[in-house]
Amino acid sequence: MNYKDDGLALHTDFYELNMMYTYWKQGIAERNAIFEVYFRDLPFGSGFAVFAGLEHIVNYLKDLHFSDSDIDYLKEVTEYPQAFLDYLHDLKFTGTIRSAVEGDLVFNNEPIVQFEGPLAQGQLIETAVLNMVNYQTLVATKAARIRAVVGNDPLMEFGTRRAQETSAAMWGTRAAFIGGFNATSNVRAGKVFGIPISGTHAHALVQAYRDDYNAFKAYAEVNHDVTFLVDTYDTLRSGVPAAIRVAKEMGDKIDFQGVRIDSGDMAYISKRVRQQLDAAGFTDTKIVASNDLDENTIQNLKMQGAKIDTWGVGTKVITAYDHPALGAVYKLVSIEDEHGEMTDTIKLSSNAEKVSTPGKKQVWRITRHGNGKSEGDYVALAYEDIANQESLYMFHPNFTYINKTVRDFDARPLLRTIFDQGKLVYELPALVDIREYAMQCVDSLWDEYTRVLNPQEYPVDLSQAAWDNKMSIIKRIKEKVNWHQA
Ligand SMILES: Nc1ncnc2c1ncn2[C@@H]1O[C@H](COP(=O)(O)OP(=O)(O)OP(=O)(O)O)[C@@H](O)[C@H]1O
Ligand SMILES: O=P(O)(O)OC[C@H]1O[C@H](OP(=O)(O)OP(=O)(O)O)[C@H](O)[C@@H]1O
Ligand SMILES: O=C(O)c1cccnc1
C-alpha cells in the first residue's frame, strides 16, 4: 500500500518515535526538557559559519501534526497501541524555540538552536531540525566564503542540476543567496523565494545551430540582453570573434552584456578575451566564468590577474563539495525530575571536546563598544545577566590559561525566542533583509577570522558558572561510575 506524502511529522528517525513511545508509556512524555543544537567543527576550515534553516524550521513546527495517513502507516508497520497512536494524532507543537536567526554568524561549541518543552516533542523534532540546520548552514557558509574572495563581483548560483535532489536545490539556492550570491539560475527558487534569476545559454544552443555565429545570431534576434557562451569549439578563434560579429551586426537592437567561458585556462583565456573585446570597442562587455569554481579556484584566478567580472558557481556551492556535512548534533542538556526540579545532564566522552556542556544556556556575542568588532562568544547559563557586567573574564574552556579580561564591551544575546510555548512570536524577515544582515555580520568580524585559508580561531568561551557546573557534573558522574565499579 502506498501512502500520501502529506506532512513532515514522520520526517524523523524511527528511534525518536520509539523513545517518544517509551516516555509516553512511562508517564514522562510531558516533563520539561531542554535540548540544544551545536556543531563541534567549523566546515571547510572556515573561521565562521552563517546560520540558515530557521524559516524551514518555523514552517515545519507551525504545521507539525500526524496526518491520518501517517497514523495508518504507523498502525501497519509498528506495534504501537491505539492509545499511543491517538496521542500522536492529537499532538500539536507546544514547545519554546530559541534560536540564532538566519544570517547570524555561528561558531563551534555553542548552542545555535534550543528547544524547551515536553520531552516527547523535543525528541520528535530532532531529526528534522538537524536536517534543516545542517544543510542550509553548510551551504550558506560555503557561499559566504566564495563571497569573501570575489569582493563585490556579481555571483550567480548555477547548482540545481548537481544538487542532491530537488528540495536540496531549492533550500540550497536560498542558503547560497543568504551567504552572498546575487542571483540563481533556478527559476522555481526565483518564484518561491523571490531570488533574482539570471542566465546565459548552454553549449546545446551552439551545437543545435552547429556553429557559433549562427547560434549567437539566432539568439540575438529574439533576446535583447545577451551573454554568449563562447567556448564550444574554440574560444579565441571562433567563439569571441563570432560574438563580436553578431554584436556589431545587431548594433543597438541588443545589449551585448557579456561572454561566458566555461573551460580551459581561465586566467590566460580571460585576458586574451578582454583584449579581443576591447579592441573591438566592447569595453563594457563583461566576462563571465564558470567551470567547477569555488573560493579556492576563484582566489587563485584573481591572483593570476584573470580578467573575470562575473562568477557562475554550481556544484561546489550547492553540494558543499569539500565538506559534505556540517555535523551539528542535538543534545539533552536539562530535564525535569520526578520532583519537578530541573536537572542538568551531560554526554561524556574520552575526548574532552566531545563532552557536552550541561544546562540551559545563552550565547552572548561580545563586541568592542564603539567599533562593533568581535571579541568572541561567551556561553553562559541562561540565568546569568552578562550585558550589565562591568568586565568579563573570558577563558578557553579546554586550555584555561588562554584568557583575557574585557571591559567596555557590548553583549548581544544570540538565541532569540522564536516560538513561546507553541506560539510563533518571531516575524520571519524578508529574504533580502536576511542576506543584507548576513553581509553586515561578516563585515563585523576581523579579517583574521574571515580569510579563507587558515583563519584565526574565534574564541567561544564558557562563563565561570557554566564551566563550574560542567566540572561538578563530570565529577559527580565519575564518582557514581566508580562507585558502581567498586
Ligand atoms: N588559470 C587557472 N588556475 C587555476 N585553476 C584554473 C585555471 N583555469 C581553470 N581552472 C580550473 O581548473 C579546472 C579545469 O579543469 P579541466 O581541465 O577538467 O576543465 P576544462 O579545461 O574545462 O575541461 P573540459 O573541457 O573537460 O571541461 C576547473 O575547475 C577550472 O575552474
Ligand atoms: O561547473 P559548475 O560550478 O557546476 O557550474 C554549472 C555548470 O553547469 C553547466 O555545465 P553543463 O556541462 O552541465 O552544461 P553545459 O552544456 O551548459 O555546459 C555550466 O556550463 C557550468 O559549467
Ligand atoms: O545560465 C547559465 O549560464 C547556467 C545555468 C545553469 C548552469 N550553468 C550555467
From TrEMBL:
Residues 155-337 form the Nicotinate/nicotinamide phosphoribosyltransferase domain. Pathway: Cofactor biosynthesis; NAD(+) biosynthesis; nicotinate D-ribonucleotide from nicotinate: step 1/1. One of its GO terms (molecular function) is nicotinate phosphoribosyltransferase activity. Keywords: Glycosyltransferase, Ligase, Phosphoprotein, Pyridine nucleotide biosynthesis, Transferase. Gene3D superfamilies: Aldolase class I, nicotinate phosphoribosyltransferase. InterPro entries: Aldolase_TIM, N/Namide_PRibTrfase, NAPRTase_C, NAPRTase_N, Nic_PRibTrfase-Fam, Nic_PRibTrfase_pncB, Nicotinate_pribotase-like_C. Residues 10-134 form the Nicotinate phosphoribosyltransferase N-terminal domain. It catalyses: 5-phospho-alpha-D-ribose 1-diphosphate + nicotinate + ATP + H2O = nicotinate beta-D-ribonucleotide + ADP + phosphate + diphosphate. It is an enzyme of class 6 (ligase). The keyword Lyase does not apply. Transiently phosphorylated on a His residue during the reaction cycle. Phosphorylation strongly increases the affinity for substrates and increases the rate of nicotinate D-ribonucleotide production. Dephosphorylation regenerates the low-affinity form of the enzyme, leading to product release. Its EC number is 6.3.4.21. Residues 360-469 form the Nicotinate phosphoribosyltransferase C-terminal domain. The keyword S-adenosyl-L-methionine does not apply. Belongs to the NAPRTase family. Catalyzes the first step in the biosynthesis of NAD from nicotinic acid, the ATP-dependent synthesis of beta-nicotinate D-ribonucleotide from nicotinate and 5-phospho-D-ribose 1-phosphate. This is Nicotinate phosphoribosyltransferase. It comes from Lacticaseibacillus baoqingensis. The lineage of its organism: Bacteria, Bacillati, Bacillota, Bacilli, Lactobacillales.
